[in-house]
C-alpha cells in the first residue's frame, strides 16, 4: 500500500516535493518503514527520486535560511530567521538621480559646452580629415578633430587603443569630475557598490582590421592587444580598473539603442539590485579572504552610456554600402536634416556619452548637485527587418500588436514601468536620424502615444551631431537632462521644407525654445529592430 501511494518518476520536482512533505512530519523510523519496499539500494528509479527528494527539501529549507541570513548580513541588520517563518522588512523604493555628465562629441568634449552649442544651433558636421576619402561618395561626418587625453587616459592606452575606448574613458572620468567625485571622495566610496556599464554598437573595427592585415603576413605579426582591444566590454573594464570600482561591469550592444539599454539596466542595478548569494559558506569564505569586502544587493553609483568611433575607411564604406548615408558633400552643415523633405540619409558621427546615476539618498548624503531624476524606461524588438522597423500596425516603428512589438509598445511600456502619465510627457528627444523612411514613422508612433498633449515638443539632436550609433542615446540623454536643468530645448536645424507627414506645431523650430519640462522621453531605435525609450523628470 505504501508503494502504491508513492509519486511517479515523471512527476515534476515541485510535485515530488509536495508529495513528500507529509512524510517529513513522520518519525524517521516510520518513514523508513514506508519506503523500505523500494529501498534506495535497489534499481528502482522511483525510490531513488524519493530518497533524493527528502534530501532536496532539507537542502532547500537550509538554503532559504542561509539566504535570509546572508541578506541580513549584507544590509547590516539583524533579522531572526527560522525554518518555519521569516520576518522580511518591507522593501523601500530606491530612487535614481543623475549627478554627473560626461560627453565627447563633434561639438565639444565638455558636456555643458556641448549643450550650449546645441542651443545655439551649431553643427558639428564637416569634411572628413582623418583619412583620404576622395574616392568615396560620402565624404562628410561628425568627426572629432582634436581631443586631449592628458590626465584622463594612460599613455599606453592612448597609443594602442581604438578611439571608442579612449572616448569612453574620457567621458566617464569627466562625468565623475562633474559629479564632484574627487580623489578624496572616491576614497570614501564603497567601491563594491559602484559599477560601470558602457556599451558600443561597433566596438573596435580598427583592432579587427589590424589583426586581419597582420595574419595575412604571418601569425607572428599579430598584436597581443588585438583580441582584448576588440572586445566590446573593454571600455567598461578599463574604466573600472582605473577607478577600482568592483560592482557590475559589462557592456550591452544593441545597435543604435545601445546607450539607452545601458542606462536603463544600470538604473535597475541601483533600484532592484542583484540576488544575494544563497551559499553562506561561500560568502563567508570569500569575505574572510577579502577582509573588507562585503556582499551587497544594491549599487549606489553606476557610470553608464555608450561609445563608438568608426569614422575610418571600413566604417564609412560599410554604411555607404547600406545606401543610408547622406551625400550632401558640398554643404556638410546642411546634410543632417531630420523630418525635412530634402533629406537624403543620415550623417555618421562619433564620440561617447556617460552619465553618473546615483541612488537618491546616497547623493543627498554627499551633497551632490542633482540634474534630474531617472524615472524608468523600456526596450522591445520589432523582430522584422535588419535595418528597418515594422511596416504593420500603425506603420514602421508604430506596431501595435498583442506581442508588444514596435516602438509604440516600447513607449507605452516605458510609461507603465515608470508610473508616468502620458499627459505629463511634454518633451521628446527623438531618434530621428534624417532617413527617408525612419523619420516619418517615428513621428507617427510618437503622435499615436502623445498626440493629445498640446504642450508636446520634439527635436532631434542628430541634426547637429550626426548619428553617433551606440553613443547616440547617451549624448541625447545628456541633452535631455540639460534641457530639464536649463529649461531650454535646442532647435531642429535644417528643417526648411518639413515633410508632409509631420505636424510642425510639434517640432521645435530653427531657434531654441523655453519649455517647462514635466517629463522628458529620449528614444533610440536600432538596426535589428531594437527599440528603447527612457524617461527623466525634474527632481522634486
TrEMBL record:
Lineage: superkingdom: Eukaryota
Ketosynthase family 3 (KS3) domain: residues covered: 93-538
Gene Ontology cellular-component annotations: chloroplast stroma; mitochondrion
Classification via InterPro entries: Beta-ketoacyl_synthase, Ketoacyl_synth_AS, Ketoacyl_synth_C, Ketoacyl_synth_N, PKS_Beta-ketoAc_synthase_dom, Thiolase-like
Pfam families to which the protein is assigned, alphabetical: ketoacyl-synt (PF00109), Ketoacyl-synt_C (PF02801)
Keywords associated with the record: Transferase
Enzymatic class: transferase
MF (Gene Ontology): 3-oxoacyl-[acyl-carrier-protein] synthase activity
Family stated for the protein in its record: Belongs to the thiolase-like superfamily. Beta-ketoacyl-ACP synthases family.
Designated name of the protein: beta-ketoacyl-[acyl-carrier-protein] synthase I
Organism listed in the record: Citrus x changshan-huyou
Amino acid at each position: 500500500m505504501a508503494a502504491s501511494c508513492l509519486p511517479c518518476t515523471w512527476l515534476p520536482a515541485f510535485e515530488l516535493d509536495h508529495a513528500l512533505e507529509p512524510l517529513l512530519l513522520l518519525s524517521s523510523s516510520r518513514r523508513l518503514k514506508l519506503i523500505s519496499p523500494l529501498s534506495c539500494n535497489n534499481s528502482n528509479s522511483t525510490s531513488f527520486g524519493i530518497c533524493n527528494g527528502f534530501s532536496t527539501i532539507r537542502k532547500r529549507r537550509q538554503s532559504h535560511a542561509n539566504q535570509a541570513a546572508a541578506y541580513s548580513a549584507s544590509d547590516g541588520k539583524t533579522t531572526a530567521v527560522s525554518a518555519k517563518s521569516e520576518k522580511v522588512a518591507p522593501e523601500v523604493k530606491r530612487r535614481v538621480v543623475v549627478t554627473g555628465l560626461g560627453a565627447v562629441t563633434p561639438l565639444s568634449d565638455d558636456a555643458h559646452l556641448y549643450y550650449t552649442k546645441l542651443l545655439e544651433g551649431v553643427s558639428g558636421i564637416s569634411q572628413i580629415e582623418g583619412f583620404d576619402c576622395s574616392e568615396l561618395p560620402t565624404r562628410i561626418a561628425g568627426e572629432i578633430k582634436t581631443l586631449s587625453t592628458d590626465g584622463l587616459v594612460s599613455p599606453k592606452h592612448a597609443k594602442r587603443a581604438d578611439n571608442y575606448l579612449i572616448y569612453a574613458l574620457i567621458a566617464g572620468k569627466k562625468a565623475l569630475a562633474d559629479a564632484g567625485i574627487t580623489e578624496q571622495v572616491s576614497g570614501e566610496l564603497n567601491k563594491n557598490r559602484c559599477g560601470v556599464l558602457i556599451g558600443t554598437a561597433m566596438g573596435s573595427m580598427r583592432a579587427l582590421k589590424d589583426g586581419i592585415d597582420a595574419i595575412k603576413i604571418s601569425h607572428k605579426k599579430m598584436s597581443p592587444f588585438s583580441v582584448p582591444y576588440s572586445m566590446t566590454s573593454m571600455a567598461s573594464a578599463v574604466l573600472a580598473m582605473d577607478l577600482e570600482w568592483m560592482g557590475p561591469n559589462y557592456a550591452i550592444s544593441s545597435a543604435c539603442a545601445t546607450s539607452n539599454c545601458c542606462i536603463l539596466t544600470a538604473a535597475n542595478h541601483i533600484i532592484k539590485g542583484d540576488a544575494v548569494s544563497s551559499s553562506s559558506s561561500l560568502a563567508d569564505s570569500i569575505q574572510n579572504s577579502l577582509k573588507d569586502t562585503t556582499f551587497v544587493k544594491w549599487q549606489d553609483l553606476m557610470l553608464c552610456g555608450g561609445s563608438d568611433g568608426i569614422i575610418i575607411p571600413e566604417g564609412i564604406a560599410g554604411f555607404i554600402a547600406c545606401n543610408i548615408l547622406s551625400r550632401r558633400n558640398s554643404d556638410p552643415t546642411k546634410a543632417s536634416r531630420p523630418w525635412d523633405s530634402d533629406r537624403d540619409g543620415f550623417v555618421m558621427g562619433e564620440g561617447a556619452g556617460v552619465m553618473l546615476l546615483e541612488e537618491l539618498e546616497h547623493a543627498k548624503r554627499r551633497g551632490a548637485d542633482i540634474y534630474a531624476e531617472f524615472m524608468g524606461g523600456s526596450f522591445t524588438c520589432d523582430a522584422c527587418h535588419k535595418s528597418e522597423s515594422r511596416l504593420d500596425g500603425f506603420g514602421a516603428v508604430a506596431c501595435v500588436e498583442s506581442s508588444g512589438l514596435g516602438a509604440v509598445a516600447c513607449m507605452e511600456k516605458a510609461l507603465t514601468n515608470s508610473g508616468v502619465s502620458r499627459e505629463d510627457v511634454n518633451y521628446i528627444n527623438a531618434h530621428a536620424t534624417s532617413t527617408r523612411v525612419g523619420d516619418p514613422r517615428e513621428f507617427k508612433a510618437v503622435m499615436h502615444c502623445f498626440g493629445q498633449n498640446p504642450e508636446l515638443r520634439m527635436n532631434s539632436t542628430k541634426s547637429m551631431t550626426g548619428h553617433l550609433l551606440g553613443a547616440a542615446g547617451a549624448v541625447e540623454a545628456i541633452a535631455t537632462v540639460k534641457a530639464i536643468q536649463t529649461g531650454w530645448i535646442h532647435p531642429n536645424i535644417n528643417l526648411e521644407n518639413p515633410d508632409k507627414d509631420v505636424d510642425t506645431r510639434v517640432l521645435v523650430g530653427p531657434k531654441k525654445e523655453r519649455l517647462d519640462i514635466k517629463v522628458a522621453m529620449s528614444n533610440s531605435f536600432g538596426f535589428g529592430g531594437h527599440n528603447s525609450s527612457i524617461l527623466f523628470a525634474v527632481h522634486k
